[in-house]
Design goal:
This protein is mainly α and 79 residues long. Helix content is 66%, strand content 0%. It folds into 2 domains: 44 residues, no CATH class; 34 residues. Helix 1 crosses helix 2. The N and C termini lie close together (9 Å). The relative contact order is 0.12.
């Protein structure tokens, strides 16, 4: 969830062809601190197996329930 950005087709293509512009866009949109957190997370290793997948699914089911109860709730990413 922390790493999701929705773009129209035009901007998706533009940023694909201009990764430095995309980096600037993300920093402006999300903030430098958020990008640092994402960078740190991408360097981590998440070993996947059925137990981990089940844990992740449980986490997001709980997050969706919280969001359904309170539309202002911001879903928290698993990692």
């Amino acid at each position: 969830m922390d790493n999701a950005v929705c773009l129209c087709a035009y901007h998706h293509r533009f940023f694909t062809e201009n990764p430095l512009a995309f980096s600037g866009f993300l920093e402006e949109e999300l903030g430098a601190g958020h990008l640092e957190i994402l960078t740190e997370k991408c360097r981590g290793i998440l070993k996947e197996n059925k137990a981990v997948r089940d844990e992740i699914a449980k986490h997001y089911r709980e997050e969706v329930r919280k969001k359904e109860k309170n539309p202002d709730y911001v879903i928290v990413s698993y990692n």
